[in-house]
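The methods section describes the discrete structure representation at length, but only in general terms. Since the whole study asks how a given chain folds, the encoding of that fold should be made plain. An entry of this sort, consisting of the sequence and the corresponding backbone structure tokens, reads as follows:

. . .
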Amino acid sequence: MDVLNTVEAMEPVLPRPVYVVGAFVFGMIGHIVFRRGRKTERPLSSATGAQRDESRKQG
């Protein structure tokens, strides 16, 4: 009975299932995008507008 009372007392602290699923999906999308960005030879412009300077390319 003590465990049940403890779980009921923690109910407002425990995250909702939708929150857990959303965090998982958000993390997976971020991981996939990160891996794709690492694999591309010439990444697209970033949101900051910073681009690679091709004139500095060595070799």
Summary: The radius of gyration is 22 Å. The mean pLDDT is 77.
